[in-house]
């Protein structure tokens, strides 16, 4: 009932332990707290909080218009309702190294298990669009060092994302990643890899967990979990997928209203009310409410279990 029972420190420790096994972890993107609960209910390994999704949810393009406060607030809302570790897109850290440090501590306070900082010029843009610009290596390294130095829980995962591949090519991206790992990055996120061989090259270049981004309509093919595991990927994210599915269904529903004058034909494809109530734990709230408000303090049986 209410929020998750697992505290942030435990989630971080569990994520570290899972990464140490070498297995591939699935982190679908949650577009709100309810979808995070669904991700957990389906048995996924973690929840991803996408900057592109947050921007879209606010009706904005993914071009660096969101603020650190907005990202921290949404991260808190999502992280607190799930027992799974949450990994959040912290963009460029929202400024200079001191801003990066503050962003890291705000996200740590929000309860996330990890975050990634990228090397685009601030303000950034979607990693799968053309026309990106990246900072020099020294600036990118300072961002990661600031992030690592700022965290108070050493288990908080600091991941370095690089967009160099789409600007200067694969060799330059591999060199950038080596510098970022040397600066203290716990894991790496090479954006917009062209194929599996490029992910293999990253795996050979650095000895830290590797993230692959399986976003639709991007630069990378949509590889299967088996293919990604075979080349040594540690985490796969599906950052915008659930939002795209939900918005696609919403658009079809609105078209049905215009075409048919009713949503009767769409009802079979809707999530049933009972399933929604299950995800929201209505029964737990009802039990709590009845235990508190129908409790008779004079009863010889003592108070009921109000938590359940």
Question: Could you walk me through the main structural features you see in this protein, from its secondary elements to its overall organization?
Answer:
- The protein is of the alpha/beta class and 308 residues long.
- It has a single domain (8-239), classed as TIM Barrel.
- Helix content is 46%, strand content 11%.
- The protein has helices at 8-20, 33-41, 51-57, 68-79, 97-110, 137-150, 165-168, 170-182, 196-205, 225-230, 241-260, 273-280, 282-293; strands at residues 25-28, 47-49, 86-89, 114-118, 157-162, 187-190, 211-213, 235-238.
- A five-stranded parallel beta sheet has the order 2-3-4-5-6.
- The radius of gyration is 21 Å and the shape is globular.
User: Would you give the CATH topology?
Assistant: TIM Barrel
Q: Spans with pLDDT under 50 lasting ≥5 residues?
A: none
CATH hierarchy class name: Alpha Beta
Order of helices and strands: HEHEHHEHEHEHHEHEHEHHH
Kindly give the count of domains: 1
Task: Fill in the keyword field for this structure.
single chain, about 300 residues, alpha/beta, TIM Barrel, 5-stranded parallel beta sheet, 3-stranded parallel beta sheet, 13 helices, globular
């Amino acid at each position: 009932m209410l929020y998750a029972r697992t505290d942030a420190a435990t989630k971080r420790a569990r994520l570290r332990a899972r990464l140490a096994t070498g297995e591939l972890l699935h982190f679908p993107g949650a577009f709100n707290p309810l979808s995070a609960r669904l991700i957990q209910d389906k048995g996924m390994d973690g929840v991803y909080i996408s900057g592109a999704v947050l921007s879209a949810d606010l009706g904005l393009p993914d071009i660096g218009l969101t603020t650190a406060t907005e990202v921290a607030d949404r991260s808190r809302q999502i992280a607190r309702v799930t027992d799974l570790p949450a990994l959040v897109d912290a963009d460029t850290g929202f400024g200079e190294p001191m801003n990066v440090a503050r962003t890291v501590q705000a996200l740590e306070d929000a309860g996330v298990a990890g975050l990634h900082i990228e090397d685009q010029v601030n303000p950034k843009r979607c990693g799968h669009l053309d026309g990106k610009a990246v900072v020099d290596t020294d600036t990118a390294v300072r961002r990661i060092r600031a992030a690592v130095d700022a965290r108070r829980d050493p288990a908080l995962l600091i991941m370095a994302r690089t967009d160099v591949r789409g600007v200067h090519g694969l060799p330059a991206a591999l060199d950038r990643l080596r510098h970022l790992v040397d600066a203290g990055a716990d894991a790496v996120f090479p954006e917009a890899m062209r194929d599996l061989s490029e992910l293999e090259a990253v795996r050979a270049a650095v000895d830290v967990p590797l993230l692959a981004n399986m976003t639709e309509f991007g630069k990378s093919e949509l590889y299967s979990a088996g293919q990604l595991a075979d080349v040594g990927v540690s985490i796969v994210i599906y950052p915008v997928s659930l939002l795209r599915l939900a918005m696609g269904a919403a658009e079809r529903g609105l078209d049905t209203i215009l075409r048919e004058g009713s949503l009767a034909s769409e009802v079979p494809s809707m999530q049933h009310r009972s399933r929604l109530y299950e995800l929201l734990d209505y029964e737990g709230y009802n039990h709590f409410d009845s235990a508190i408000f129908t409790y008779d303090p004079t009863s010889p049986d003592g108070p009921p279990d109000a938590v359940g």
